[in-house]
Design goal:
With 64 residues, the chain is of the alpha+beta class. It has one domain: Irregular (Factor Xa Inhibitor), CATH 4.10.410.60. 38% of the residues lie in helices and 16% in strands. The protein is built from three helices and three strands; from the N terminus they run αββαβα. The protein has a three-stranded antiparallel β-sheet with strand order 1-2-3. A hairpin with a 5-residue loop joins β1 and β2. The longest helix is centred in the last third of the chain and has 11 residues. The chain is elongated and about 55 Å long. 3% of the residues are buried.
Amino acid sequence: MPKQKTNSSAKKRFKITGSGKVMKQQGGMRHHLEVKSSHRKRRLNQDQVVPTVDAKVVKKMLGK
């Protein structure tokens, strides 16, 4: 039986924590940063937990 390939786009975007949660980088930090407040940029720069509904699909793409 062949091995399942990891989805290349998913492995660049998601990380799995030790407890099994799926983390992602929030959007909104690529451009127009000069018009956003420092507080907003700090908030957007933090990693976010993927909802459990979507996490199941992400884990399958990562081969976990």
